[in-house]
Amino acid sequence: MSVHELRRKPGDSSEKITINVGVIDLGQIDLLVQEGFYSNRTDLIRTAIRNQLTTHAEVVKETVSRKSFVLGLEHYSRSDLEAVQAAGEMLQIQVLGMASIANDVTPELAAATIESVVVLGALNASAAVKAALADRIH
């Protein structure tokens, strides 16, 4: 299993979210964009999110440590899970960032080796693996 810290780079993939914003807030956002403070609405929203995450960075750090989360990217290959299975163990996946299960992992292997999945961020796995783990994903 490999762990990689995720850093923002041009071209990094991102997750799309949808938010509802009141018309007055939206008007103020548009005004700031029009005045050149931000290049567009998304730029303002991303900046606001980053500022809030910076403000709460210590809480995030403490919680990640206390709850034993892996911070960043955690990838599980077929050989990783086969080794877990051979050892007679089960994984408890806890990731803040992205957990990735290789495409060649069968639903049966995932079910036999993964006890629980908690991902704050994104879980990349085949639809069949996600279905096999549905009752273990929290």
TrEMBL record:
| Source taxon at top rank | Bacteria
**InterPro entries from the entry?**
Arc_rbn_hlx_hlx (IPR013321), RHH_8 (IPR041088), Ribbon_hlx_hlx (IPR010985)
Please state what the protein is called.
CopG family transcriptional regulator
Name the species this protein comes from: Halomonas colorata
